[in-house]
Amino acid sequence: MSETSADQVAVVLMKAGRMKIRYPAEVVADDGTVVTVRAPWAAAGVRDFGFVRFEPGDVFTEHYWRDRWYAVKEVRTSAGVLKGWYCDVTRPAVRDGATLTVEDLDLDLWCSADGETILRLDEDEFAESGLSERDPEAASQAMSALNTLEHLARTGASLSPSLPKASPALHNAP
Fold it and tell me: What is the residue range of 102's domain?
């Protein structure tokens, strides 16, 4: 089943049982397994991580899987220049009508557009979250997802299902 539409959803990112952020996004595609949405940078102002800056005008094309423990966000400037991919380790996504919900499990991965910078992020937050004690299976899935994302990035596999195979940084679809 391949469905493409321009409907809207509210993306809801949960963390530790609370809503971290909620923002509107346009549904680009939903094939029953992967939901792809597009949204502008949802926070107020600039967020400078040191390795990348997210700022007003940036456009995020976000891929959420119903069967994988991560989400991949392709980040571009307002002019369309690729900044890179911000990957969140999450529980599998759930779409219920006009709401797309994911639970953030603290672990993240950044891959720059040129593939030169690949960073595992927030492993300290993950360790402090207590997930390993509360839900060992989820913690194992989370670490496996982070390892998978890093492997894909380091081997040049595409992190983004919609990314053309000719991309200079990540050229082969998984």
Answer: 8-154
Q: Is residue 106 part of a domain?
A: yes
Residue 134: which H helix or E strand, with range?
helix 131-134
The 10s digit of each residue's pLDDT in 99-148 is: 999 999 999 999 999 999 999 999 999 999 999 999 999 999 999 999 99
CB 84 within 8 A of CB 149: no
The pTM of the full predicted model, rounded to 2 decimals, is 0.87
Does residue 126 form part of some domain?
A: yes
Whether residue 19 is predicted with pLDDT greater than 80 in this model: the reply is yes
In a domain, 72, yes or no: yes
- Residue 171: predicted pLDDT: 32
For 103, other C-beta atoms within 10 Å of its C-beta total 20
Strand partners, 38: 26, 61
Domain CATH number, residue 55: 2.40.380.10
Residue 58 has pLDDT above 80, yes or no: yes
> Mean of the pLDDT values across residues 70-95?
97
DSSP state of 17: T
Taken in order 6, 31, 60, 23, the sign of the CA dihedral is positive
For CA atoms 38, 113, 140, 21, the dihedral sign is negative
- At 33, list the tokens: 């397994």
Q: Does a structural domain hold residue 112? A: yes
